[in-house]
Design goal:
mainly alpha; 434 Repressor (Amino-terminal Domain); single chain; about 70 residues
Length: about 70
């Protein structure tokens, strides 16, 4: 699937998909859910690693860690 295909299927521009993929744009919850559903993964699988890297004080269970 191309970025253009994904963009068309979730109702955004290809540039939005590029920005989300690069980490330059945080999608809305609705867009994140739509992208994840179309790719057949969960939002956590799609964005989880990036979220953990962006917020090192949070553990994988979402609670503050030391």
């Amino acid at each position: 699937m191309t970025q253009a295909d994904l963009a068309g299927e979730v109702g955004v521009t290809r540039q939005t998909v590029v920005a989300v993929e690069a980490g330059d744009y945080a999608p809305s919850v609705y867009l994140a859910l739509a992208i994840a559903a179309r790719l057949g993964v969960t939002v956590e699988q799609l964005f989880g690693e990036r979220l953990e890297a962006d917020r090192p004080g949070l553990s994988t269970n979402g609670k503050a860690g030391l």
